[in-house]
Amino acid sequence: MKCSTLVPFSFALALVPLVGCGSSSTAQRYDDVVATRQHDYDIEPEGEVLAMCGLDNSRSYFAYDSSALSADDQALLGDVGRCLTSGRLQGRSILVTGYTDQEGTKNYNLELGLARSRAVATELAARGVPQTRIYLRSRGEDRAKGDSNAGRALDRKVELRVLARN
Predict the structure, then answer these.
(1) What does the pLDDT look like over 5-55, one tens digit per residue?
(2) Domain count of the chain?
(3) Is 17 exposed, middle or buried (0-12, 13-18, 19+ CB in 10 A)?
């Protein structure tokens, strides 16, 4: 079973110590949410956010063992926030997925991935995106591919995807 949790952002702050695959009354497995909404929701590719917001394809990554956003990250999220509040993605919800490298335990990496998602969600909320439209999940190290320092650095990221009505 894959451990992947989707949490509405407004509830995520109350779930600070979300550990492993433990269940919570407000947390739901992402796959379960998609399965129950498969007829009226679609997950668009990450590139859709960039294309619809008119952004370039630049990426940034988190420092080792960190969930801190850089000034460049904050600027990019400001652009995404404007797109979600008054641009082409106005009224749409966003899925924020945190990833880590393979260093550390599985549970620690799930928590760190969620902390990265939460940092992005907090910045988007500060930019006016309603918390009820921001969903968080952590994949931790599940999709980590790096086997060198440079490769592991590319695994420390957050992806933004649009949840869109069909």
Answers:
(1) 444 444 333 333 223 333 333 344 444 444 443 333 344 457 788 888 888
(2) 1
(3) exposed
